[in-house]
Amino acid sequence: MNNLISAVETCFNPKIYKIILSKPRTKTSDYQKIVINQIKEVYHLEKFTATQVFNENLSLQQFKDFLSQALEHAFLQYNGWDEQYQYIIQISKKGKPSVTKKAVTAAPAKVLTHNREKNYILKEGTLIPPLVDMGIFTKEGKVVKAMYDKFRQINRFVEIIDDEIKNLDPGAQLNVIDFGCGKSYLTFILYYYLSEIKNLKVRIVGLDLKSDVIDRCNASARKYGYDQLSFELGNIDAYQSPFAVDMIITLHACDTATDYALYNAIKWNAGLIFSVPCCQHELNGQIKTDQLSLLTKYGIIKERTAALITDAIRGNLLEACGYKVQLLEFVDLAHTPKNILIRAKKTSVTQKRKAQALAEVKSAIETFSLTPTLYGLLETDEIINSNKN
Question: Which of 28, 139, 142, 325 is deepest in the core (most CB within 10 A)?
Fold first, then answer.
């Protein structure tokens, strides 16, 4: 321990403006690496997990304490730079530190502000007609200051899609159904992104129950020249797709409408699913348990527990049907509380994992006395019990 403190003190001076902590001590470490930039009197930390980045600011004294703890418990390597030298601490598996100092010919650039410009997929300065009509862009393609949060949220949605399709070749065909499309703000943005930025041969159909909304959306599609984007009137549960479906989008389809959308996606063998559920009332009216009554005793806890169990069951049922599933946090466009986005990709899931996912669902159903719609639909069609899994 004394040797480590000595090593940290050797590599700590106010001229060091950039530090990277790497090589986590265990596979279960909270962060894969931490990047630190000294900005005036503050140390700005970017903490990287496999999928997210968390930011934190520390004072000089707070940072000294943090650094010692991080190297003692979390990381095996320290790299620090001033304008002339790189300082390296490497810690062996036995906990013995070694210190290296070497001259550098090109030191990393200094970060002068916390608010570095993000490299958004939808670029400010580009004229995107739907964003102009939504009041997010000016006619010159500049972000309206008061709408910057919505601009970031829309880009977040596009980034989530981009993670799964970024390796598609230009010119590839992509057929998309948007269930419960509503006013279709994100549908228009998605069409622009897929056709104009990714250069894909995209066809999108939006489905909704309101005829006036469908008429208005079709008029907007014609106005923008989006000739492969159309909107239809109809129910999710009875809809027949006019083409083989590659991607299903369902944003805020209310209550069991999400289940019918996921059921159709599974039945059609859709390769990608992006779903933000809404108003999970079904299980809230059913949930009952003797073993875990603490979770159903208080109304607000019961409601949230039911909503979380609803989406956990949906995620597991998708796994049982051969999808790799992630549940991500997604902020919608109306500044409502954060929602869960279900992102699922059809892939090779082992029979063992499928069986385990289904067993976990059955256990939750038994424990909480539930009859979830999606489970019933898949069971009736023998999708979750067939050899097709």
Answer: 325
